[in-house]
Specification:
Layout: H1 3-6, E1 10-12, E2 19-23, E3 45-48, H2 70-83, E4 89-94, H3 96-107, E5 112-118, H4 136-148, H5 150-162, H6 168-180, H7 183-194, H8 199-202, E6 209-216, H9 222-231, E7 235-243, H10 247-250, H11 252-262
Parallel strand pairs: 2-3, 2-4, 4-5, 5-6, 6-7
Antiparallel strand pairs: 1-3
Amino acid sequence: MDPIARNNVRVSGPPDARSIMFAHGFGCDQQMWRYVAPAFEDEFQVVCFDHVGAGHSDLSAYDPAKYSSLDGYADDVVEIARALNLHDAVLVGHSVSSMIGMLACLRAPELFGKLVMLGPSPRYVDDPPYVGGFSKSDIRELLEAMDSNYLGWSSAMAPVIMGNPERPQLGRELTESFCRTDPAIARQFAEVTFLSDNRDDLARLSTPTLVLQCSQDVIAPKAVGEYVAAAVPDSTLVMLEAVGHCPNLSAPEATSAAIAAFV
């Protein structure tokens, strides 16, 4: 299947410029980059896409076996990059796509010259002394809530994930994004995301990496960002003065500035 059509790939900016590729997080689609990606269109060829199962991707391409781990999503990222003949591209991954991006860089380091991890977490479940932010029972209850009432779970969780309660429109947007996702696909992606453990992969990453950490983030706490930055050999940690797990929506100017300074 053509990866460009499968993943609803959209390309903008000068075609002969260096490429920057934006990968969205769980429950989102490429629209979550609409305040950040345009800031790079003058100097970069900008590539945005939807993970299979999200946005306007080809839902017929969703294979539960392929997407039973983050590897299936990483394979798609590599396929998109190769279909576009990318080389030395900047790969920006939000949330779980930070780890998907890392796996893509490990698979095809020639395609990606730099990696940006926005709100990364290599493991969400606590494993003392490692702090992931969630207990096993937290994740079990989350998945059970998704099983019993996905729309209700989305309405309750999205505003918490977004933060910024004084700007309720942000929480509503994330809620609507969650609710547009097929519940069965969202449930499997949530399990794959929240039960993943990519800590051992961090040390293998040779791609220069920027770790962007929000000052307050209930999904990826400060300790997690610090752990990632310490584990990746060639990394830089930048703390964003931003609240919540989606600074690409809540603090796009600060997010864009930090990425631009790195690339």
